[in-house]
Specification:
By secondary structure, the chain is of the alpha+beta class. The chain is about 15% helix and about 40% strand. The chain contains three helices and 15 strands.
Length: about 230
């Protein structure tokens, strides 16, 4: 994924009401950018952090700039969760995610379960449909382990139950953790933040759901998933 037009740098002054980021650019101008990440953004949102912003001049936009990247002490991090589905799609199409190779059709936002939409449905004649739920990951602990979620996520736990139900119906189901940073050694469930999600994930794996994590190469020009890392039990 290439950022076009190029991103611009700024300093984060504060994040407020989850959706807004007050920033100062190199000229000293202060303005508000959209924060697309509704999580806690642990380690990525301290005042004084250098951030990178995309810009859209679309008439319907109330805020022209969107927060895309944060420079943490350890790595440059992609903080826009809305990018994760596209990153996974690009990686599937490029053959980077070998576990999801061999499907002729990829469809997005297909209804499944009681009230959910799957991020990607992969289909191929003579193969079971493959339901792929994508989770964007930004947080890293002191041991170099990425973790998910960074806030309580009842919706995330529900997705695990629904994926397991698809396996019971004869489909294949995958949770794909899109780790938008290049320094993660492995991924774990954040039981200290949301123990219900951790239990739901492990129960889903026991019932046949597959879990993979891929970390990204991130720079100010673009992001790409490049390497699988372990998912810890």
């Amino acid at each position: 994924m290439i950022f076009a037009p190029p991103l611009s740098a700024a300093v984060l002054l504060r994040r407020r009401q989850r959706f807004f980021a007050d920033v100062r650019d190199a000229s000293g101008r202060e303005f508000t950018a959209l924060c697309p990440n509704t999580g806690r953004m642990l380690g990525c949102a301290a005042p004084g952090t250098t951030v990178w912003l995309s810009r859209s001049d679309a008439a319907q936009r109330k805020l022209a700039h969107t927060w895309e990247l944060s420079a943490t002490a350890q790595a440059l991090v992609g903080v826009h969760p809305g990018r994760a589905n596209a990153l996974v799609a690009e990686a599937i199409d490029a053959g980077v995610i070998g576990e999801l190779a061999g499907y002729a059709l990829r469809r997005g936002e297909v209804r499944y379960g009681e009230r959910s939409r799957i991020d990607w449905l992969l289909q191929q004649p003579q193969r079971a449909d493959c339901y792929v739920e994508v989770k964007s990951v930004t947080a890293l602990d002191e041991h170099g382990l990425a973790f998910f979620p960074d806030a309580v996520s009842a919706r995330g736990a529900r997705h695990m139950h629904e994926l397991a139900a698809m396996v019971a119906q004869g489909a294949r189901a995958v949770v794909l953790f899109c780790v938008q940073r290049g320094d993660a050694l492995a991924l774990r469930a954040a039981d200290e933040i949301d123990p219900a999600y951790g239990r739901a994930l492990r129960a889903a794996l026991h019932r046949g759901v597959e879990a993979y994590a891929y970390r990204a190469a991130v720079d100010t020009r673009g992001i790409a998933l490049v390497r699988r890392i372990p998912v810890l039990p």
